[in-house]
Amino acid sequence: MLDASVTKANYNNLQSYIDALVANARAEGKDRGFTYITSIQEENDLINSGSNAGFGIRLIYDIDNNRVFVAEAFENAPAFPQGFDRGTEILQIDGQSVSTLMSMGGPQAVSDALGPSDPGVTRSFVIRDVSGVEKSVSVTKTEFSLDPVSDRYGVKILDDGAGGRVGYVNLRTFIIQDAGPQLREAFDRFRDQGITNVILDLRYNGGGLVSVAELLGDLMADGLEGQVFSQTKLRSSKSAEESTALFQDQPEQIRAMKLAVIARGGTASASELVTNSMIPYLGDNIALVGTDTFGKPVGQFAFDRSACDDRLRAVTFKTVNADGQGEYFNGLASVMPNTCRANDGIFNQLGDPQEASVSVALDFIAGRTCTPIGVAAKNEILKAEDAPRQFLQPAAPNAAQRENPGLY
């Protein structure tokens, strides 16, 4: 419910006024920044082509030690050919020490030092790769497309260590229409090779298009056609607009018999929708691997004011699965039949069987034991490479950064 007592004149920008209107829902944990103003053009460009201006890297920071690392690099963006890849540490930006920036001004100081998301913005860096080699490079932000599935590690067939084969797919974002054809290609490969166990890596996926989420569900649901994927629920006065999405037949689909979903705190929205929707059909054969998710079982409708290039994304509905489960505002771990705690092994490439989360996912698929999320392993000694990290996110993210946490 909106707070009708809020006076617009008390706020000097639109977003702060909107924040005040939804403050009650935010206090209940049900609208944690989900209602916001964005650019119509930016969002449409992102959905239609994945267009974004930047270096093409996703950044995380070490909470305890003031260090900033690359979690992921987009291959078609300007930073990757300059040596930025998963596990690369950024030591300096334009001569400023990252550790000093972090200690003096926190993550926002680093975000400010990286500059605006405009083509032509250039920054010099000192970086250190996973082998310990340091070098100085200069990178200029350009327009690039966010490729939803990496050509390097996005789709793999892995050995589970017990004689079985597992299909691994890493989906970076649901926000881009091109995700559909790439997912079809991935599952067609799994189908051709008789793969029925899947690792779905959504650890950095902030969500996006429900239509892509529904397709991903279809691709894992051979034999479930016509059954409920999800239900969209609105307030009682809008109940006539509610809808039910049913699993559809797809030529590339498989029947996933066991599913491990790799997730972290930035895994949200459509990523959670797919996971939650598969629970009724997989039961004990599905697990959440990594950490708990963000907790966004709600979605927004768009309300445009084209004269100002303003799009209001307002929370208007929630989604539930076939069992009516959809109240996971604190994350999916509480509703999952199984959870397996795992670190984000940033010094191993995504899709590598030795990477911490992929390794634990393979353990679940193969029937080996794991430690549940939220439970500390007995006598655990935290290694430096497993230090707790969060996405580096600007205070006012653009459309691409909202859907792709940590993107610069």
Structure notes:
The protein is α+β, with helices and mostly antiparallel strands. It has nine helices and 20 strands. The protein has helices at residues 14-21, 23-27, 40-49, 98-114, 179-192, 210-219, 270-282, 356-366, 399-403; strands at 36-39, 51-54, 57-62, 67-73, 89-93, 96-97, 122-128, 134-140, 142-145, 155-159, 165-170, 197-201, 228-233, 243-246, 258-263, 286-290, 298-305, 310-320, 339-341, 389-391. Strands 3, 4, 5, 6, 7, 8 and 20 form a seven-stranded antiparallel β-sheet that branches. Strands 10-11-12-15-16-19 form a six-stranded mixed β-sheet, sandwiched between helices. Strands 1, 13, 14, 17 and 18 form a five-stranded antiparallel β-sheet that branches. Strand 3 and strand 4 form a beta hairpin. Helix 5 runs parallel beside helix 6 (210-219) and helix 6 (210-219) runs parallel beside helix 7. The protein is globular. The two termini are 34 Å apart.
